[in-house]
């Protein structure tokens, strides 16, 4: 007998039918200043008043301890053409901030990636347990929109939207 009423593989397959945006979430370890980040599709706005967002981090992620200690984080909504960035930050053990990733420091000394469709800099307000994930809630302090279309994730594949027709 399985321990859950729904098979996790079936749930994953069903959720794959729901297209979502792709984000990279970054922070800096407050003790060392080392940058950390991960790719997330479990991201959403939580409230407009006050401006809050939430993102889910796998409990087994190498970066989890840094996010548990951090004062803030940034959510980078990736744009079409940033599939390589999404893959890099999704790869366990990869040097995610290696050559080729443009980075500057933002609020809370958080690393900000160049070229995102939008970046949200957040003060980390709550960490909540959520099954096999840690739910991070952030109060949005600064938003930097970009002009590009977002990168999507659908049926376990990255999908790029065509540029809108100018008319």
UniProtKB/TrEMBL annotation:
PANTHER family attached here? FLAVIN REDUCTASE, FMN REDUCTASE (NADH) RUTF
Species of provenance: Kitasatospora terrestris
Q: Where are the transmembrane segments?
A: none
| Domain of life the protein comes from | Bacteria
Q: Which Pfam families match?
A: Flavin_Reduct
Is Aminoacyl-tRNA synthetase there in the keyword field? Answer: no
Q: What is this protein called?
A: Flavin reductase like domain-containing protein
The protein's UniProt keywords, in alphabetical order, are: Oxidoreductase
